Structure formats: C-alpha cells, structure tokens
Amino acid sequence: MTAATHSPLFPQVPESADAVLDGLDPEQREVALALHGPVCVLAGAGTGKTRAITHRIAYGVRAGILAPASVLAVTFTNRAAGEMRGRLRELGAGGVQARTFHSAALRQLQYFWPKAVGGELPRLLERKIQLVAEAAARCRIRLDRNELRDVTGEIEWAKVTQTVPADYPAAVAKSVREAPRDPAEIGQIYAMYEQLKRDRDVIDFEDVLLLTVGILQDRHDIADQIRRQYQHFVVDEYQDVSPLQQRLLDLWLGDRDSLCVVGDASQTIYSFTGATPDHLLNFRVRHPQATVVKLVRDYRSTPQVVHLANGLLSQARGRAAEHRLELISQRDPGPEPVYTEYADEPAEAEGTARRIRDLIAAGVPAGEIAVLYRINAQSEVYEQALADAGVPYQLRGAERFFERQEVREAGVALRGAARAGGNDALLDDAEDLPAQVRAVLSTKGWTSEPPAGSGAVRDRWESLAALVRLAEDFARAKPGATLADLVTELDERAAAQHAPTVQGVTLASLHAAKGLEWDAVFLVGLTEGMMPITYAKTDEQVEEERRLLYVGVTRARVHLSLSWALSRSPGGRASRRPTRFLKGLRPGSGSLGASGAGGGGGIERGSGSGRRKRRGPVQCRVCGATLTEAGEMKLMRCEGCPSDMDEGLYERLREWRSEQARELGQPAYCVFTDKTLMAIAERVPGSDGELAAISGVGARKLDRFGADVLAICAGEEPGGSDDEV
Question: CA 723 to CA 65: how far, in whole Å?
C-alpha cells in the first residue's frame, strides 16, 4: 500500500466500526457513541460538527446498531447534504439517506400522493416570482423589481411560519417584522397568488412541506408507514429550523425520541426566512433526558481569528448570546487580523484586490481566498477591481457543478472513452490516466492554457479544468486506476453532489458564505448602515447582524482582513463610521483596545499607498450629474448619456488586448476590462497623465501597457519603440 493511498481526497474506508472512531477528539467521540435517546450537540464554528455526526451515523451502521435504510439525516442546503453523503460513503455507510427537508418531503409526497389524494402530484413551480407578479397585477398593485422580490420573500416567510393570507397583517405586527409594503396589500397579493396556483394546478417549494404535513396529520396509515421506515433522525444546522420544518420533524418522529440535533444559536442568521433558534434552545426543555455535548475545540481558525470571534460574541445580548460557546483554537498562532480604513469604496476595492494579489504571489491559492460583503449589490466594484488586478474570481451562487452542461457533456465523453478502451484513437498517445482525461476533454474545449476573456467561455474552461485536476488527484491517490474507475468516481460524486473545487477568488454575501471556509477572508464594507444594515431596527435584528459578522469572521482559517470606507465615492464627505460591532475589538476603538482583537497590528490607512489623491465629486462629462456607480465613474458619464466612443479605436484596443492575453497566458480582462477599454476609446488619452487618470489604469498597468495603448490611440503600431532600444 502506497502512502498516496491515504490521500485526504480519497481516504480509505475504515476497516471496522471501532476504526470509525479513530481520530475523533473526546467530545466528538462522545457524540459518535451517543446512539440512543435524544441527543443535542452544541457545536461552535469550525469544531468538526459534520465530522462528529457523520462518524456517529457510520459507527452506528458499521456496529450493526443502526440499519442504513432506517436513518434519515436532514440539513438545509443541497451542498451540505451532498457533503454529508460523500463523507458517509467514505466511511462505509453509503446506504444512509442524507437530504434537505424539501428533498425528503418531496420524495415522500410524490410516493404517497396517488394513495392519499389520487391522480398525479401537481407540477412544482420552480420560480414563484413570475406568478407573484401576475397576482399583484390582478390586484392592481404596481411593484418594481425590488418590491417584487421582497413581496415574494414575504409570502415564503408567511408559509413557513404557517400564516394564511388573512392572518398575514396581524402576524407581521406581532413579529415586529418590517414589511416592504402595506401588509394589507401583501396579504391581498398572497391570497391571489394562492388562487392562481390552484387554478393552474401547481405547487411551490413551501407547499411541498405544507402538503406533506397535511398528509401525515390526516392519514395515520401513511405516517405509520414512514415511521416504520425511518426510525433514527439527525438534523444538522438545527438553529435554522422553521416552525413548519419542526412540525414535519415532529410528525416523522411520532412518539419516539431517536433524534440527534446539531446547531449553534450564535450562527442564527436566517430569521427573515422564518428560521428560529428557539427549537435548539428549548431542546432540553422538550427532552429533559437528552444527552447534551458541547464542541468548542476550533480546528479551523488560528487563535488570532478565534480571539476576535469570541470578542464579538462577548458583547452580544439576548437569549442566543446567553448560550454562546467560547471557542478554543487548536491551531498554531497566525497573523493578527488586519483592520484597514479607506477614503472611499473604489479605494477599498482596489486595496483589497492588491492585498489578494500579494497573497496569491505569496502562495495562497486563489480558490482559498474570499471577499465577503453584506449585500450582493456590493460585488460589482470588487469584480472590477479584481479584474483590473488580473485576479480570477467566481461569484457564489452559480448552478451546482455536476448540473452544468459542460460537466454533463464531459461525463458522457469520458464514459464513451472508457467503454472504447484501447479502441479509442484519442487515447493512443496518452501514457496515464490524467493524460487520457486531458485528451478526451480537449474535444470539449479544454486547453492547457485558459482562454482569453471572461464570461461563459472562461466558466466552461474552469469546469473542465476542475475535472482535469480531479483526475490528477485521483491518479495520485489510486495508482493504477483506469478511466473506468474515474468515471465510477465521478458518477458517485455526482449522485452525492460532491464537486471538485473551481479555482478563483470567491465573491459572496455573508449569508451565502455560511458553512464555507477559506484560508484568507476579506470582510469589506464594515460601516454603520451596512453592518448592521440600516433596516435592522430592533435589538433582536441588530443582534442577528452581529451574528452575521461572527459567521464571516469564523470563515477564515489564517488570514483575516476587515475594512471600511469613509465615503461612497472619491471626494465624497467622510461621514461614515466603522461598525459598532468592532468597538473595543479593533485597536484604538475603546477600552478593550488591542487585547480584544488579539493584541496586535493597528489600523492601516488604506488610501491607495499614498497614490490616491482626494478628489471632488465625479461628474458626468455629458450632463454634469454626480456619478456614484463604479462603472459610470470609470466612463466619466451616466450609462444613459450618449457615448462619443471611437468604435475603430475600441476594436483596435480589443485586438491588441487579445494578443497580450495570449502572450501572458491570462484572461483578457486581466489586461484591461471592457469598461476600461471603452473609457480609453472615449477619452483618447495623449499622455501618461491622461491615461493614468482613467479608472482601471493603475501604476502597474501604466508601466506595463501604457506605451502600447498611447501608440494605438495615436494611430501608431504598438511596441514600435522597443526596436530602437
């Protein structure tokens, strides 16, 4: 057996039940051995909760205590369920069902609908927003795009809290929830939406849970049948359970108590969807005999990161704060968190991009870096800054890896090549498994160098490149593996939704980052009004914002940067203040001083390393209006104002950019983005100073590309002066 066999990507299945327990710490081991009665695991961020509960299930199965088909493990996202299935498969417990609440309920609903109701289950409405828009129109209520999204969210909240349309206004008032419109109007739209669904014989995702609950309540024979099949339940992220999900769980359980729940009240950040930590906090009240285990050994983050996380919660208030867990880092010391204050948002984005570029140069993989912000609208300026810095990135929230068209096509091609074996001419010159995969995927668009540009072409290449990397890892872990073995591995991963990593810096909202982790995390835009968000009015809402920042901090393993900008745009009034949540934690912010943040550093003034000068408000050069959007400021005009761009110059710049990208082996946007080229073609700079004044042309790019760009703008051939040197 070679050492490579023990690769963390492809671990060996434990030889026995006792071997499943190897490597668990004392508290995790206690969880794994607690196989009877109600069990409550209070697990802090980074403490290995998924490891503990998957080893608990696997140990029970391998020891013959739990029948695989009798266990139902439920969580909240397909990604989490896929990870759980993958881990259980690696531990030799592949027959266990690990699903989301909706997936488990839909499967039961599809099976029992003909018996309970008759006929076929109504069609599932994948996107309810269009039907909500029609319902509003029928009610003669005009909604703009943002209001439509918010009203749709309100309808979802009402349904998971089991609130009918007539009761919606009273429920909103009771919950101190700030409705996006008059609650009576939303109740009216909600009622019309339900009517339209009935008329068209469709159901939505919330109906899946509601209808399953209804059938289990009304048909005791069906409830008994499900209870005979599923006798042991595990619920991950239990702090996020809604009243409707808890009702479904109660019906699955019946009068039994074979339930294990795992959660952390300090990570409750989805109350707007109806999630509440009350079920977790009241678990011992409902189950007085429950075994309670606390996991506080943090294996993810350095002591410096953990110290800041603990400091954030030490200032928290409310019931969830009373049950907070004090984490204890198990890692070696690392760098102190870095706090940076910038003059404006573009400076913050550019400074963040420079730091990221430096980290990548120092050896941190791009895929192990994340930029996290409060709302998705903040992403654009960071997309632009990373592109200008030549740093690849990916936006969190794309479709699942194995559902992408190029990945499905690649799977078909690999499967065909595996069947053909030595009869496939493509594989004639391929000496090993990775070479075979590269040969096959080259017919689907994979190349040894990434394509120029961004967008769909680059995304497709990244997906295929991820498959190539997976093949290389698989070959190292299992010497002698064949293409057929890899295809089997891909099929199993697809079934478990256990995807390989696509490289690139992650841009994500704090909510979307829950459950993920990176070596380096940049928390940006940390100002009052954004953190906490301006519409967080009540004490409870403000505390949830604090927990959201805590979740962001605990995503970091080693490097953590926190930053804020004093104004939105260059030259704007410096009226913003850093978030109150860092008071007493960041150096110089209060009585706790440096001790609250781990005792180091100080606040850096990140105004652009002395290069950026304070400017007045940026005004449109066509109509004179003050510009605030990053894209508009780059063009120095409103999006709606007419462009005087030299189209011929723009095309020459694009051709030159493509050549540069090919020579550098980088995407085209790493040279200059389309918006930067448009700005150059509109303003036609004639000197270094005029070119440097265009947003997106920093000192580095001016040195590297300035002479070529100015030559093209002057109607000359780029690079001509090099011949005379």
Answer: 79
Collapsing DSSP to helix, strand or coil, 621 comes out as: coil
Q: What φ, ψ does residue 657 adopt, rounded to 5°?
A: -60, -40
**Residue among 230, 266, 207 at smallest CA distance from 545:** 266
Question: In angstroms, rounded to a whole number, what is the distance separating the alpha carbons of residues 661 and 656?
Answer: 9
**Coil/strand/helix, residue 112:** helix
* Cβ–Cβ under 8 Å, residues 572 and 617: yes
Let me know if 219 is exposed, middle or buried by CB neighbors in 10 A (0-12, 13-18, 19+): middle
Query: How sure is the predictor about 192, in pLDDT bands with cuts at 50, 70 and 90?
Result: very high
Does residue 60 surpass a pLDDT of 80? yes
Nearest 5°: CA angle at 292, between 291 and 294? 150
Nearest C-alpha neighbor of 524 from the set 565, 566, 581: 565
**pLDDT band for position 307 (cuts 50, 70, 90):** very high
Q: What is the pLDDT of residue 667?
A: 67
**Element holding 440 (H helix, E strand):** helix 433-441
CA distance 350 to 400: 30
Beta bridge partners of 344: 567
331 burial via Cβ count (<10 Å: 0-12, 13-18, 19+): middle
Which one-letter DSSP state was computed for residue 204?
A: -
**The predicted structure's pLDDT at residue 473:** 79
Q: Are 98 and 505 in contact (CB under 8 A)?
A: no
Residues of the chain above pLDDT 90, percent: 37
Is a pLDDT exceeding 80 seen at residue 277?
Answer: yes
Q: What would the two tokens of residue 543 be? A: 């505390």
How many beta carbons lie within 10 A of that of residue 680, not counting itself?
Answer: 25
Asked if residue 523 lies in contact with residue 508, where contact means CB atoms within 8 angstroms, the answer is: no
User: How high is the pLDDT of residue 721?
Assistant: 44
Beta bridge partners of 604: 340
The CA-based dihedral angle spanning residues 297, 303, 304, 305, taken in that order and rounded to the nearest 10 degrees: -20
Q: Which of 570, 664, 679 is nearest to 617 (CA)?
A: 570
Tokens of 568: 């939105």
> Quick check: 83 and 493 in contact, CB under 8 A?
no
Total count of residues recorded for the chain: 725
CA–CA separation, 389 and 505 (whole Å): 12
Classify burial at 422, counting beta carbons within 10 Å of its beta carbon; exposed 0-12, middle 13-18, buried 19 or more.
exposed
- What predicted TM-score, i.e. pTM, was given to this entire model? 0.69
Which of 243, 294, 318 minimizes the C-alpha distance to 545? 318
Q: DSSP for 418-430, please give it.
A: HHHGGG-GGGTT-
The verdict on whether omega for the bond into residue 532 sits within 30 degrees of 0, i.e. cis, is: yes
- Give the pLDDT confidence score for residue 630 in this predicted structure: 57
Section 305-322 average pLDDT:
88
- Are 606 and 342 in contact by the 8 Å Cβ rule? The answer is yes
The dihedral built from the CA positions of residue 544, 560, 364 and 299, taken in this order, carries a sign that is negative
Are 441 and 464 in contact by the 8 Å Cβ rule? The answer is: yes
Q: How confident is the model at residue 567 (pLDDT cuts 50, 70, 90)?
A: confident
E strands within 193-310?
202-203, 232-235, 259-263, 291-295, 297-298
Q: How far apart are CA 203 and CA 201, in angstroms?
A: 7
pLDDT interval class at 401 (50, 70, 90): low
